[in-house]
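Students often ask what a holo structure prediction actually looks like on paper. The answer is less mysterious than it sounds. You provide the chain, you provide the ligand, and the output is a string of discrete structure tokens encoding the 3D arrangement of the protein together with nicotinamide-adenine-dinucleotide.
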Amino acid sequence: MSIPSEQWAQVIEETGKPPVYKKIPVGKPGPNEVLVNIKYSGVCHTDLHAMLGDWPLATKMPLVGGHEGAGVVVARGDLVKDVAIGDHVGVKWINGSCLNCSFCRQMDEPLCEEATLSGYTVDGSFQQYCVANADCVARIPKDVSLEAVAPVLCAGITVYKGLKESGARPGQFVAIVGAGGGLGNMAIQYAKAMGLHVIAIDGGDEKRENTLSLGATTYVDYTTSKDLVADVKAATPDGNGPEAVILLAVSELPFQQASQYVRPHGTVICIGLPAKAYLKAPVFETVIRMVTIKGSYVGNRQDTAEAIDFFARGLINAPYKVVGLSELANVYELMHAGKVVGRYVVDTSK
Ligand code: NAD
Ligand code: ZN
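The corresponding structure tokens follow.
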């Protein structure tokens, strides 16, 4: 397999400005790394946050974004033993971690202080050839479609982990806030596969149809509901609210509302990362209703393997649209306007 010296990529050259589609050199893998010929990459709202400089964490600059890259290994470093040329792998948010600190030793590699982040602190998957740490690439079975699995590599892993962190058990109810977006659609499918009832919360009729068709039992439209807290509680059989809430929205208000409609002794899982937002909940009600509020951040290598296994068994079917890598800036515009239903996946050959 011949590896070119140059490739097409989407490069952010200045924070706040759209990426530039241009040719850049192909990277070389270090001793522990692989070079992945990225075929498809999902577009996550995190990529837009990175472009806009929304978070209190600096990005590499210039930056190639992207962290849902699915492709084929074309080269590997001298120390790589268990990933072979030709293997199908995924470049995910955690590009590499030390694997030896107290967090990594407990399988919490997203918490590793030396973790590198694809499309944020190192170049990511919006290029045709991407370098990633061999220990951290997702292993993808060869009979799994690379374009369909791409959104699993961040959206799928993250919501699967969040659902596990919520402690919700089969037969219980989960409210998914931002259910019509990329993570939201995946969350509905994973929740369903895990035996949960889903209350979908998002805005507009297109997202109503989309979320109900994916298996949500109720849809609450935050743009038209007169009393969202009452509507969510009313969607559960005894009116006491869902056992778990998965917050995926990109605005602050839902983060303040969730503790009011979660069931007493229930758990609110925060995953969405709206810019400059704060969590606020009344101490009195949080205490006497025994509410748990926690953050959840991507997933470890085991969560990755499990999330891909759900997908490989045919349990996860979330819609996605494929466009060329050259059209990435248009996808960001639609996403910024809240108009993306499900996920966009870019094809790096176009
Ligand atoms: P997306 O743009 O595809 O979806 C966001 C959805 O939220 C949209 O459908 C939008 O209509 C909806 N929404 C906005 N305001 C709402 C409100 N008030 N109530 C209900 N719904 C509302 O984005 P995405 O790619 O699914 O990402 C979602 C968020 O998750 C982003 O902030 C992203 O950075 C974050 N994220 C976090 C992790 C993590 O590990 N914690 C991982 C991946 C992504
Ligand atoms: Zn992501």
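The mean pLDDT is 97.
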